[in-house]
């Protein structure tokens, strides 16, 4: 579990991590070279690959192209087992613990076992919490779960603690891709105070300032998807 150890090490040393999320359904194979060039110029420490709905079957091709050119760990962030690629380095083995849909609490995980059993992918158990980000996002639609209200801070904190006690090695606070409101600093702070495992934060983060605020309040790793998708120059002139 090399990659997980590295994330924990970074957390211990207060070195903040940044993942660029590439959603295979939103990129064209023809633009991968350009995206790779932009990722190289960014402060990204990790690449996440995945999405709620992926229909174009380019996962393997995409991961191989990223792997060939980038010296960054590639971690799968799959919406379902069809998004597993043996060419990646690790997989977030997600438990959608904010929801009450057994399909995303255990069924999909069981279905992925035949694909993962003999795989070399590092499996990182991740407690995944969907928090209301001001609009219905794909995760909510696809998982058929209700996000936790962003004002129900106790419920969020208790869910994160339960996720940790159940053995998850990471907690991921998710506002949903393209969320109107990112996870608030107060939520990040209060969850972080209770955790001794690394905290990931993503969904609706659009500016450097928001990235910085998330770090200051306790995010160990921030995930950026839409902002980079919409503007691959997002990290140009980055001071990080
Ligand atoms: C979504 O947390 C990620 O699963 C990233 O969200 O696309 O809004 O950056 P954005």
Automatic annotation (TrEMBL):
Reaction equations catalysed: sn-glycerol 1-phosphate + (2E,6E,10E)-geranylgeranyl diphosphate = sn-3-O-(geranylgeranyl)glycerol 1-phosphate + diphosphate
Pfam families cross-referenced by the UniProt entry: PcrB
Cofactor(s) recorded in Swiss-Prot or TrEMBL: Mg(2+)
Taxonomy, superkingdom: Bacteria
Annotated TM spans: none
Assigned EC number: 2.5.1.41
Binding site for Mg(2+): 23, 52
Uppermost EC category: transferase
InterPro entries, per database record: GGGP/HepGP_synthase_sf, GGGP_HepGP_synthase
Record-given protein name: Geranylgeranylglyceryl phosphate synthase
Residues involved in sn-glycerol 1-phosphate binding: 172-178, 203-204, 225-226
């Amino acid at each position: 579990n090399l990659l997980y150890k590295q994330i924990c090490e970074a957390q211990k040393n207060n070195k903040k991590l940044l993942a660029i999320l590439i959603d295979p359904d939103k990129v064209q194979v023809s633009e991968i070279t350009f995206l790779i060039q932009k990722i190289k110029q960014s402060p990204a420490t990790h690449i996440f690959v995945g999405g709620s709905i992926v229909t174009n079957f380019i996962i393997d091709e995409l991961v191989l192209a990223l792997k060939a050119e980038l010296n960054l760990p590639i971690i799968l962030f799959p919406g379902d087992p069809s998004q597993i690629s043996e060419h990646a380095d690790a997989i977030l083995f997600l438990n959608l613990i904010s929801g009450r849909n057994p399909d995303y609490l255990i069924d999909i995980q069981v279905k992925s076992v035949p694909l993962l059993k003999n795989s070399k992918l590092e499996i990182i158990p991740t407690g995944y919490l969907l928090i209301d980000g001001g609009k219905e996002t794909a995760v909510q639609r696809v998982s058929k779960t209700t996000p936790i209200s962003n004002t129900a801070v106790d419920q969020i904190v208790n869910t994160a603690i339960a996720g940790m006690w159940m053995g998850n090695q990471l907690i991921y606070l998710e506002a949903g891709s393209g969320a109107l409101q990112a996870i608030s600093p107060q939520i990040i702070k209060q969850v972080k105070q209770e955790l001794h495992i690394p905290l990931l934060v993503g969904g609706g983060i659009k500016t450097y300032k928001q990235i910085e605020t998330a770090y200051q309040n306790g995010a160990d790793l921030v995930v950026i998807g839409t902002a980079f998708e919409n503007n691959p120059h997002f990290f140009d002139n980055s001071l990080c």
